[in-house]
Every structure is written in C-alpha cells, then in structure tokens.
Design a protein that fits this description.
With 279 residues, the protein is an alpha/beta fold. The protein contains 11 helices and 9 strands.
Length: 279
C-alpha cells in the first residue's frame, strides 16, 4: 500500500488548483515542480491512471455543477438501532454498530481496549484505531505526529485503554487501493456518535465513486431538511476518512467546499476515484 508519490502529487494539485481557470500546461506544472513534463505525466499515471489533463477537468467548478445536476436522489435513511448493514463502500460491504450504553457506565470508553496502527495509502499515512467490534477511527496524518491522534482519541474516550499494534495489512483497504475486485469481507465500523450523525454517514455511503452530492440533499435524505447546518457539521466530523466518503460532499454551487483532511486531499481523492470511470 506504500505510495511514495503522494507528496509530489499533492504539490502538483495545489499548483493546478490555483490555476484551473487558466488551464496550466504540462510544461508549466513541470516547471513549478522543477522536473520534466514526461516525469509529471508518468507520476500522475502511475499514481492514479489519471493524466494531468484529465485531472484538470475534475477540479473545475463547472464540472461539479454538472455532476450535482446529474446526481440521483439519495434513498431515505431511516433510523435504526443495533447492527446496521446493507451498505457498501467502493463495492465492499459495510456494517455499522453504534456504542452500547454500557460504554458510558463509568465514562466514555469504559472497559474497552482500542488498538491503533499506522498504514500507508495513495493519499498519505492513515491513523487507524479498532475496537474488538470494528474500526472506530481512520484519519489521514497530514504531517502530524502519531501522538496527536492518540491524544485526541484518549480525550474522546478517557476510560479506554489504547494499545499500539503492528500495522498488519487490512484486506479490504488493500483491495480498494489496488482496485481489485471487491473481496467477500465486510468492513465493520464501531462508531462513537449520535444516531443523527450516523444517519448522515450512512447517506454518504449510498453515493458512488466519482459522483458528487451536496449537504442539502443529504439533509433531505435523513429527514432533516431544515437542519442543513447540523448535517454539514456531521459530514465534516466524519471519523472514517475515505471509506465513509465525505469527500463526495461539495457545496450546492459546485465549489469543493471544506474537507476535514484538507482541500488538496479532497481533490486528489476525487481524481483518483474518477480514474477509468466514465463520469
């Protein structure tokens, strides 16, 4: 899963994003990165099978407006308790379990052990935390030290025991990043959140790779049409980077909007999703 190209890709994306109205040439991108046009094209193709020219098209606001206009209505999300299945991410089955009242008995995380590890991805390092019931946290490091993520998790769940483990390969992650045919395994998520937030994340899981949606449509899907601000807050507080696809939520006017792990990474993920897709 190691991908040493992402930092160079991110640098190129930041430059392209500031120049998308002028459509910078391959030579201009190469000059900015102090390399050759040939190397830039090879870098993008190796990373995502997307050429720089194709990538330029994915970050154009007019394209965002077009994708929003063609978006299918989201299915109605009804509140459920206990284990929630019937969802997918990148073609892989997803099952969500909320936190039981017993976890609050003597404080958040009571009598719970959480194992954490660091993994590589096409978009940089990921901090991954798991309970015995499933993954509870996936976050891009964005250059921050590991201790920052551990400290944040401990503040959220002060009674939990946090244990570092060796980063063994996670089969579903590997399958998604390599674009292999989805394997017959379920991504189990154990989420510490309000049911209303979980419903928003379930709505995001109904979207398709390479497609876009806006937060007003998500608010309608979860039956909270008048609570678009709360819906946007739930999107931005998504604890599972990439696999709960909050990167597909953009502003109603086609602009990229915010993203918890940085706008550059949001652009990068969308371009990566669009590779080999007719969108």
């Amino acid at each position: 899963m190691t991908n040493p190209d992402y930092q160079r890709i991110a640098e190129a994306i930041r430059f392209i994003a500031t120049k998308h109205n002028q459509q910078p040439s391959l030579d201009e991108i190469a000059e900015h990165l102090d390399t050759s046009a040939f190397e830039i094209k090879r870098l993008f193709t190796r990373w995502s099978q997307v050429t720089p020219k194709t990538y330029l098209q994915t970050i154009n606001p007019r394209r965002g407006e077009k994708l929003l206009a063609s978006a299918k209505p989201l299915p109605e999300i009804k509140s459920q308790s206990g284990l929630i299945g019937g969802m997918t991410t990148f073609g892989h089955k997803v099952q969500i379990e909320g936190w039981l009242p017993s976890f609050y008995k003597s404080g958040p995380g009571y009598d719970l052990t959480i194992e954490y590890s660091v993994h590589d991805s096409p978009f940089g390092e990921m901090f991954v935390a798991e309970t015995p019931r499933g993954i509870c946290k996936v976050s891009f490091s964005s250059g921050l030290p590991l201790i920052a993520f551990v400290s944040n998790l401990q503040r959220l769940l002060p009674e939990a025991k946090l244990v570092r483990k060796e980063p063994k390969p996670i089969e579903i992650f590997q399958s998604i990043f390599s674009r292999d045919k989805p394997i017959d395994k379920t991504l189990n998520l154990h989420l510490f959140a309000l049911p209303t937030h979980i419903n928003v994340w379930r709505a995001l899981l109904t979207t398709e790779p390479g497609k876009l949606i806006h937060h007003k449509a998500i608010a309608e899907a979860v039956g909270r049409r008048k609570s678009t601000f709360a819906t946007l807050n739930a999107i931005n507080s998504n604890p599972i980077a990439l696999f709960i696809p909050s990167h597909r939520a953009i502003d109603p006017d086609g602009q990229a909007g915010d993203y918890r792990w940085g706008l550059t990474r949001k652009h990068a993920i969308h371009a990566w999703e669009c590779a080999n897709l007719n969108v």
